[in-house]
Amino acid sequence: MRRVRVVVRGAVQGVGYRYSMRVVAERAGVVGWVRNRDDGSVEAEVQGEPSQVDTVLAWMAEGPPGARVEARDVTEIEPTADRDFAVR
């Protein structure tokens, strides 16, 4: 099991990033959450099998149409007991 915390910077708020990510995460079979941050970035935690997490990370590097991802910071963290994927 792998869990990562990701902060995505660029034009990522107001373009449906969080809600699109929930769809991608559910299709990939991962759990965790995504939220907007006050600085204009989007933060998420994603947990699942390594290949599932990699699928979501690849999508996060591009985001939905209308987004412009300029940077993505990924940090490995300890898995938790999340049971679903939430938009916060």
Description:
- This protein has 88 residues and is α+β, with helices and mostly antiparallel strands.
- The chain has helices at residues 17-28, 50-60, and strands spanning 2-11, 31-36, 42-48, 68-77, 85-87.
- Helix content is 26%, strand content 41%.
- A five-stranded mixed sheet has the order 4-1-3-2-5, with helices on one face.
- The protein starts with a strand and ends with a strand.
- The model has no long low-confidence stretch (mean pLDDT 97).
Q: What would the keywords be for this entry?
A:
acylphosphatase; 5-stranded mixed sheet; globular; 88 residues; alpha+beta
Give a concise summary:
Residues 3-88 form the Acylphosphatase-like domain. The protein has 88 residues and is α+β, with helices and mostly antiparallel strands.
Large-scale geometry: globular
How many domains, as an integer?
Answer: 1
Query: Which bin fits the share of residues in helices?
Result: 25-40%
Number of DSSP E strands = 5
CATH C-level class: Alpha Beta
Major sheet: size, sense and barrel closure?
5 strands, mixed
Mean pLDDT level: 97
Distance between the termini: 23 Å
Amount of beta strand: 35-45%
Please write out the topology.
Elements: E1 2-11, H1 17-28, E2 31-36, E3 42-48, H2 50-60, E4 68-77, E5 85-87
Parallel strand pairs: 2-5
Antiparallel strand pairs: 1-3, 1-4, 2-3
Helix pairs in contact: 1-2
Domain Acylphosphatase-like: 3-88
Family: Belongs to the acylphosphatase family.
Keywords: Hydrolase
